[in-house]
């Protein structure tokens, strides 16, 4: 039966703005929104189920468009050591850092990775996330990248979440390819990506373009391979230095370029022209105690869509709350609450290539939304984390999170 959700206010986020409808009503049929508007303007829908939302504010379901949700182990011990004065170089020299996560991920079974990732995903779901992206990149060989991506697919198949899987094999150099970065890139392009794409495990391809990872020339080889396979690309770019990776991403019409602390005005102009979304990651900025701010004014001036994400990962952003990222986006990067909310709805959907079906409350789009017990939309950015009372609706049905857990 169709459902009429009413006695609510809606921040529809159309056009990346609040686009508020006071005293709204939302008609859903199955997994789609069939009508939304002021309740007084609603036509007679006939025999439908009426659901009173008791004055709640309704927003689109939140979208975490950049996570490394699937990984083995954690690096809390290293976090403690760094605070006690041990340098990252010292930790890395004895096999710590990303190498320790690669080791733990390779050693973990698919089931163990799934259970750990499921617990993290449920935490995000509780606070209103209905879609997320999961990157691989801690396997760094075909078998283990496949294992990580298979876990991402299982999460989407078993939880009321839309999960997008991104292959980030070009994340770091695995130990067996020490000092042979070009050979590893060839392995990615010749063996890994063709196999994983053929198995239906890849929705996008990502890479880490940085002096501690891969050069723009090496990344371009990965992008050309992805293009040949018909898979869209994304890029970690300009986090630690300016290599103009974001301009490279724009040339390949990437869905997004992420981090961007060191991007230039020319990079922003290139992204605007290509429609590439800027995904800002305040959790990593905070955790690494960065001081180089992303050029927010340049992004605004050129009209680049700005998304926010958790960058949930065990090393540089162990962030289990996307809503906390809303506050950090405002306090650290000086986004407005409206920009921050657009960054985890409308623009986040665009960063995943799903803006036609998700990210705003419009007829024809997915019936994924959250009814919040708040007084105004800015409260979503105002409160420092925590689960705000509300209802999570995915595909037109209210989610019973405790039953799933």
What's this, in brief?
This protein is 37% helix and 22% strand. The protein has helices at residues 76-83, 88-93, 98-107, 110-126, 142-158, 181-198, 216-229, 245-251, 265-274, 282-287, 296-302, 322-331, 337-343, 346-351, 379-382, 401-404; strands at 3-11, 20-29, 32-38, 49-60, 62-64, 129-135, 162-170, 204-209, 234-237, 256-259, 277-280, 306-308, 369-372, 390-394, 397-398. The protein starts with a strand and ends with a helix.
Give a structural overview.
- An eight-stranded parallel beta sheet has the order 5-6-7-8-9-10-11-12.
- The model has no long low-confidence stretch (mean pLDDT 96).
- It has two domains: 2-60 and 360-403, Urease, subunit C, domain 1 (Roll); 62-351, Alpha-Beta Barrel (TIM Barrel), CATH 3.20.20.
- α12 packs across α13.
- α8 links the parallel β9 (234-237) and β10 (256-259).
- By secondary structure, it is of the alpha/beta class.
- The chain is globular.
- The protein contains 16 helices and 15 strands.
